[in-house]
Design brief:
mainly beta, single chain, 277 residues, 2 helices, two-stranded antiparallel ribbon
């Protein structure tokens, strides 16, 4: 291979992130096992956005669920009516089932000593019935809702969904696909983390100034059903080299990009060949 020309350039990758929170409330229940109950007698229930629910980490999607204070009450389980048990579905509450070995007849056909068939008492059951394997013959099982505790703790649960909304822009002059720049390492040129960022101004590449303003304006007009907790924007410089080469009768080019020196060579004549730069 004959390397004819190497052009070293750089790509710029601008990223804007808006870290948001959305809250929803709903009534839920859990088995009451003598755990603390923060009920209305302790005071009025606070409004959803006044309840403390801090993110575990910023700029990462995750969900947290918290109990809204002063909303808990203890009630009889609606499923078992406070009994702690319900009818066994396997035996329909009878405690036993028809024997599979004799089909519920209580007898099976066997060969006697003379080799003749005759009826005999089924050794697997009593009168064609076997004890239910699910309930052990009781005809009832532990209530799956209250877990056998007869009562439920009912309360308002708030779901806090933290989501990182992200947009970016790549400034790159060669024919290297822009999406390749987004996933490689580069040098951090600028970063800012504040409640609300302002557009980059006065940067030497005007495309960065314009697209910073464009994306920030987009985020300001979006996500209005959520609380915007914090914003972060950063600018990275990613190295890119374009190499022109001749190989036999082929004149073509490939790219080396990122601090990892990744290679993009979609038309390279020998795909199994490795080049280390």
């Amino acid at each position: 291979m004959d390397i004819k020309k190497m052009t070293t350039a750089g790509a710029l990758h601008y990223v804007l992130e808006t870290f948001t929170e959305h809250r929803e409330i709903k009534c839920v229940f859990e088995p009451y096992k003598n755990q603390p109950v923060d009920g209305p007698n302790a005071g009025p229930a606070p409004a959803p956005w006044t309840v403390t629910c801090n993110p575990d980490s910023e700029f990462k999607d995750h969900v947290k669920k918290v109990e809204v204070p002063h909303t808990a009450v203890v009630k009889n389980c609606f499923h078992c009516k406070g009994k702690g048990h319900v009818k066994c579905k396997n035996c329909k509450g009878d405690g036993d089932k028809s024997c599979d070995s004799c089909n519920g007849t209580g007898s099976v056909n066997v060969m006697n000593a003379e080799g003749q068939p005759e009826d005999s008492v089924c050794p697997h059951c009593t009168g064609g019935k076997v004890k239910c394997s699910t309930c052990g013959g009781d005809g009832k099982v532990k209530c799956p809702v209250c877990d056998g505790h007869k009562n439920l703790k009912q309360f308002i649960q708030m779901t806090c969904a933290f989501k990182n909304e992200k947009d970016d822009f790549v400034h790159e002059k060669s024919d290297l696909p822009d999406h390749l720049i987004k996933d490689v390492k580069g040098e951090l040129v600028f970063e800012q983390v504040v409640p609300q960022v302002n557009p980059i101004t006065g940067y030497s590449v005007d495309d960065i100034n314009k697209n910073s303003a464009r994306l920030i304006e987009k985020h300001r007009g979006s996500y209005n059903d959520k609380r915007k907790l914090k914003q972060r924007h950063q600018l990275r410089a990613v190295p890119v080299s374009e190499i022109e080469y001749h190989w036999k009768d082929v004149k073509d080019r490939y790219w080396v990009y990122g601090k990892e020196h990744k290679v993009h060579a979609p038309t390279y004549p020998q795909q199994s060949c490795c080049t280390v730069l």
